[in-house]
Amino acid sequence: MNSTTIALSRTPHGPTTVRGDSAAGISQARQAARAFTDRLTPAPCPDRADTFVLVVSELVTNALRHGGGTFTLRLNAHPDAIEVAVDDDGPQLPRMRTPDRTGAGGGFGWPMVNHLARTTAITRRAAGGKTVTALLPR
């Protein structure tokens, strides 16, 4: 399919949604995350904005790789945090595992997300699949 859809809100703190099914979708998700942090008032410090983009990139990449090949990303701002939520259709839940240091098998992303986020949650959806949510400090 190779399509990506972005819905940017018109309000400074309104939600942003990105749907994707390809590597191009990952790039669009990163761009949307950067635009989202750029619209926040007060703006997060550059390190926190970079961390936010990194977590978005990791979660949508994992959704494409392990979650059925499509994702829906939702970004939302709260007074003291920024929320990242990624839906995918895969039944497999993220798990901590020993990273493959040869570079062939991954295993670095989910521990990194858990280290960077204030909290993470995984919710199974009634229609199938799951939502992975990370809350990051603003």
What does this structure look like?
- There is one protein chain.
- This protein is of the alpha+beta class and 138 residues long.
- 33% of the residues lie in helices and 28% in strands.
- It contains 3 helices and 6 strands, in the order ββααββαββ.
- The protein has helices spanning 23-39, 46-66, 109-116; strands at residues 4-7, 16-20, 71-78, 81-88, 119-124, 130-137.
- A 6-stranded antiparallel sheet has the order 1-2-3-4-6-5, covered by helices on one side.
- Helix 2 (46-66) packs antiparallel against helix 3.
- The termini are far apart.
- Mean pLDDT is 88; it is low at 6-11.
- This is Regulatory protein.
Please specify the SSE layout and strand pairing.
Blueprint (H helix, E strand, L loop, with lengths): L3 E4 L8 E5 L2 H17 L6 H21 L4 E8 L2 E8 L20 H8 L2 E6 L5 E8 L1
Helix pairs in contact: 1-2, 2-3
For the sheet with most strands, the description reads:
6 strands, antiparallel
Strand content: 25-35%
- Side by side, the strands of the main sheet go 1-2-3-4-6-5
Estimate percent helicity.
25-40%
Distance between the termini: 35 Å
Overall 3D form: globular
Total helical elements: 3
Please report the total strand number as a whole number. 6
Helix and strand content put the structural class at alpha+beta
Q: Determine Rg (CA atoms, Å).
A: 14 Å
H-E order: EEHHEEHEE
Poorly predicted regions: 6-11
Task: Look at the structure and give the mean pLDDT.
Answer: 88
